[in-house]
Amino acid sequence: MNNGARIFLAIGALLGLMVVTCRLMQAKSYEETTLKGPIVGTWSVPAFDPAPVVLPGASWASIPARTADGKVAGWVHEGAEGKFVALDEASGRVLWQVSTGPVPADLVRKDGWRVKELVPAVPLTLAGPGVYLVAGNRTWMLVAEGGASVKTGNFPSQVPPATGAACLVGSDFWISIADDRDGGVMLSAAGVLADARSDRPAGCLPAGDGGDAKSISAMQNAHADPTPYAADDRLRGYPEDACGRYSGGRVYGREYCSDMRTTDGDPKRAVMLHVSDVMFRREDDWLLVRLPSYAAGIDFKPSIVGFELSWPRAFFDMTEYRHVTAQNNPSSTSFEAKKVEQRIERIEIVASIARTGELLWARSVARGDMPTVSPNPSDNLYHSLLLASHAGSPAQNLYIFKPGMLLAVDQATGAPRFQVGAPLPPPT
After folding, report:
1. Dihedral sign (CA 164, 167, 168, 169)
2. Which of 72, 219, 266, 332 is most buried, by the most CB atoms less than 10 A from its CB?
3. By the 8 A CB rule, do 240 and 260 touch?
4. What is the DSSP letter of 381?
C-alpha cells in the first residue's frame, strides 16, 4: 500500500471518528457529578439508633398502607392470632386495633427474604373510603375504619392467587392476580368478589419491569414512568447517550441502564439506575450521580437493590459483602489451639441522596455474618422494601420493611421513630 492510500484511509477513519464524536456530543442529554456530602466507607456507615418498640410481641405481616391524614396501618401476627392496627405516623401510638381471628394457613410465613424473591410474598394493605383491604395469596379481608367490622373471604378455585398489587377504583378494589396477563379481580367495598377477570384499570400504574433492582413493589410511591415512547425506539425512551452501547456509530439497547425509569408523580421527577450509580431526571436532561469507589479515595459503592421516592427526596437500599479471615491469636502461655476461619460479612445500608448529588444521610440496617442459604453469596444479601409516607401526610416517614418487621424513620434525618416486630429468620 502506497503512502497516498495510507493517508486516504487515515483521513477516512478520522472523519468517521469525528462523525461518531459529533453524534455523541449532539446526543448528550445528561451531566455527571460524584456523590458529595458526609461520606464514609461502606463498612464504616453507622447503624440506625434503636427505635421505640410498639406492640411488643407482634410481628408485622403485611405491606403497610399509608394515608394522607398521617396514619400507617397493616396486619400483624401475635402468635397464631391476626390483628389489624392503625398507628400514628409521628409517634407510633396505637390509634385503634381489631382482632381478625386465627391467621389463615395460606398467609402463615415463618421465614424472611427468600433467594430470588423480588418483593416479599406477604399480604398487601390498601386504604379505601372508610375501609382497608388486606389481600394475600387466596385470602382477602375488609376492615372498617376504626375496627367496627371485619369481613373475610377466599378466592374461588378458578381465580389465581394475588400477586402483591392492588388499586382503588372508585370505592372498590382491583386486586392483581398471577395469570401471566397482568390481570386482576374486582372486590367491592361491601365484600362482593367479581365472577370475571378484568384487565389492569387505566391509571393503575405497575411498579415497572424490575431489571436489576431486587425490591420494587407496586405498593410503593415509586412507579414506572408512564411516558410513552415511539414504537421504533429500541431504548424505550431512555437517553441513548447515557444508556445505550455504541458500536460502529450506532446505538444498541440500554444495557447501561438496567432498571426502569421510575417516578412518584410528574415524569420530570423520574429516577433510574445507571449500572451501579443513580440518575435523576431534571427539566430537560438527567444528572448522573456516581458513587465513589477506591479511585476517589473512599469506597462507598454498595450495590443498589431497591429504592423509593418521596418528592423531592429519594431513598436507596444498598447491600455489600466481603470475605473476612478471623483468627484467635492465643497467648504464648495458653494451651488454646490456634484457629483461623474464613467467613463472609454482609452489610445493608439505607441512604438518602438529594437530586443535586449530595448524600443527606446513610445508616446500616443490618451487619454481620452472612447466612448461607445459597452457594452464591449475592443470593444471601437479604434486603428491605422501602415505603414512603403518603405525600399528604404531615409526618413524612420512610418505612423499612422486612417480613416480620416495620421500622419507621424520619425522612429528613434518618432518626428512628418506632418499630414493630423483628425480621423473620432467613430460610433454611
Report:
1. negative
2. 72
3. no
4. -
Cα-based angle 205, 206, 209 (whole degrees, multiple of 5): 140
Sheet holding 303-310, edge to edge: 303-310, 313-327, 340-353, 359-369
Q: What is the mean pLDDT of the chain?
A: 89
Please state, in angstroms and rounded to a whole number, the distance separating the CA atoms of residues 42 and 69. 37
Cα–Cα distance list, 325 to 298, 322, 339, 341, 347 (Å) = 22, 10, 10, 6, 17
Averaged pLDDT, 120-147 = 97
Evaluate whether 165 touches 197 at the Cβ level (below 8 Å): no
Nearest in space to 92 (alpha carbons), one of 111, 73, 120, 114:
73
Query: b/e string for 292-330 if b means 16 or more Cβ within 10 A?
Result: beeeeeebbbbbbbbbbbbeebbbbbbbbbeeeeeeeee
Q: Are 12 and 267 in contact (CB under 8 A)?
A: no
- The mean pLDDT value for 247-268 works out to 80
d(CA 47, CA 42): 12
DSSP 8-state symbol, 209: -
Alpha-carbon span 55 to 278, nearest angstrom:
37
Nearest to 51 by CA among 334, 422, 427: 422
The size of the chain, in residues, is: 428
Percentage of residues of the chain with pLDDT beyond 70:
92
Gap between the Cα atoms of 338 and 78, Å rounded:
46
Q: Which amino acid is at 44?
A: S
Contact, 349 vs 364, CB < 8 A? yes
pLDDT at 212 over 70: no
pTM of the entire structure? 0.90
DSSP one-letter code for 164? E
CA distance 291 to 45: 14
Higher local confidence (pLDDT), 212 or 208: 208
Q: Are the C-beta atoms of residues 220 and 166 closer than 8 Å to each other?
A: no
List the grid coordinates of 107.
Answer: 398467609
DSSP H or E run through 128: strand 124-128
